[in-house]
Design goal:
- This protein is of the alpha+beta class and about 450 residues long.
- The chain folds into 3 domains: about 150 residues, Beta-Lactamase; about 100 residues, Signal transduction histidine kinase, dimerisation/phosphotransfer (DHp) domain (Helix Hairpins, Orthogonal Bundle); about 140 residues, Heat Shock Protein 90 (2-Layer Sandwich).
- Strands 6-8-9-11-10 form a 5-stranded mixed beta sheet.
- The protein starts with a helix and ends with a strand.
- The protein has 10 helices and 11 strands.
- Helix content is about 55%, strand content about 15%.
């Protein structure tokens, strides 16, 4: 039961740290004000109103008893005294009690007045109106065959102004919550900045200039993240430089071997060895391409449609079809994305007759589908083709002379942009590569 309640609360409550912290601060204040309001109305306002109303009705009963007498001098004297001392206006009228009820259902003052009048004069011998005049209450009491009309100030039965009470209840609460919002904004802003920096770093962008701020714990987290990012960046640069250096240095002995093979008299052996050297050169070129994919590149606004049109013009192939219905601008590393798309398209052109590209856009995601009509890849090999140096020779390979880094590079680039890459069967009976990138 508690588990189900907990899940329900999670769906209702906000997920952001700022709003959750605001609820923690504001909820006790609001609950406290509600309790104070209820206690005030119950123990002070309602009871005070009841006491004032009971005293007033007692005075009205006295007036009613006197007006039923025959001493006109006493009646005139009391009328003047009540008018002078209590601001009462008393009139004797020859009419019937009104039948229209003027009582407000949810007014404590009207409810208290009705109860006291009913207990003293009965349910059919009185009538009152508290809404006709702003500062005056009108009561009519039936006495014998006459109607006694009494007008008196509203303050006689209203102990305080509800509007003033509501103002003094709500104003301090709003003031405290406003101060809490300002402080919470200042405390949550460093966390948001740290999260953005982590997201940017996770997408492969270089993060610099992280300025620790906020509470000491948040400052320490930002400082340690900055140190970690610099260590990882330094490690990647060292690995890339080492790989590039090794690949570059190996080209010199391979060139010398080529020259020596050209001078051999045994042409058959020379041709076979030349093929091996060409394959080794191709491997080195692939290594260098992989190294370039690790080089830091600034993210820029990239028009994906223009990028694919640029690739299509470079390929200059009649078997390359583009279906790009919408213009998409993506924040990313343009050269890396182009290398990723090129690797996948090149695979399709090598092992299929036609390659088809189309895109779809959702609220916060771009889906790119690269399909072909080739032999495809067995489902049990989908994960393996993303492994570095894995070659799938029986059905299709990354390229016929490749070493198995093309799809690894593509996956690395897509992942560094915060996206995902999936393989599946295309509607053309071949392979479909689905690339999802956040917008």
């Amino acid at each position: 039961m508690f588990f189900g309640l907990n899940n329900s609360l999670k769906k209702i409550l906000p997920t952001g740290l700022f709003y959750r912290s605001l609820i923690i601060v504001a909820a006790p204040t609001i609950i406290l004000q509600i309790i104070i309001t209820i206690a005030f109305f119950d123990s002070i306002w309602i009871k005070a109103n009841k006491g004032l109303t009971r005293s007033l009705v007692g005075e009205l009963k006295t007036l009613s008893d006197i007006y039923t007498g025959k001493d006109s001098t006493q009646v005139k004297y009391l009328t003047e005294q009540y008018k002078f001392n209590f601001d009462y206006v008393i009139n004797i009228k020859d009419e019937k009690l009104p039948t229209t009820v003027k009582e407000r259902k949810y007014s404590p003052m009207d409810r208290s007045l009705r109860r006291e009048l009913k207990s003293v004069f009965g349910s059919t011998n009185y009538w009152f109106d508290t809404i006709k005049y702003e500062e005056v209450v009108e009561i009519k009491i039936k006495s014998n065959d006459k109607i006694i009309q009494i007008l008196f100030p509203r303050e006689r039965i209203a102990p305080s102004s509800v509007r003033h009470f509501i103002f003094w209840i709500t104003f301090p609460s709003l003031l405290l919550i406003s101060i809490a919002i300002i402080f919470l904004k200042n405390q949550t802003r460093p966390i948001i900045n740290l999260a953005k920096a982590a997201e940017k770093f996770g997408k492969g962008d270089f993060v610099s200039g992280i300025r620790p701020s906020g509470a000491s714990e948040i400052r320490k987290a930002a400082y340690e993240f900055d140190r970690m990012a610099k260590r990882i960046d330094r490690h990647l640069k060292q690995r890339t430089e080492m790989l590039s250096g090794i690949s570059h240095d190996l080209r010199t002995p391979l060139t010398r071997l080529k020259l020596q093979l050209a001078m051999l008299n045994q042409k058959d052996l020379s041709i076979k060895m030349s093929k091996d050297i060409d394959e080794m050169e191709n491997m080195l070129n692939t290594y260098l391409q992989f190294a370039k994919s690790q080089i830091q590149e600034e993210s820029v606004a990239t028009n994906v449609n223009k990028l694919f049109n640029e690739i299509a013009s470079e390929k200059n192939s009649k078997n390359f079809y583009l279906d790009l219905p919408v213009q998409i601008v993506l924040i990313g590393r343009k050269n890396a994305l182009k290398r990723c798309f090129n690797n996948i398209i090149e695979n399709g052109l090598n092992y299929a007759k036609n390659v088809y590209i189309n895109m779809s856009k959702s609220k916060n995601k771009l889906n790119i589908f690269i399909s072909d009509d080739g032999p495809g890849i067995p489902m049990n090999q989908y994960k393996n083709v993303f492994r570095p140096f894995y070659r799938l020779d029986k059905s299709r390979n990354l390229n016929q002379t490749g070493v198995g880094l093309g799809m690894s590079i593509a996956e690395d680039i897509v992942s560094s942009h915060g996206g995902s890459i999936e393989l599946g069967k295309s509607k053309y009976k071949g392979l479909q590569v689905k690339i999802s990138l956040p917008l």
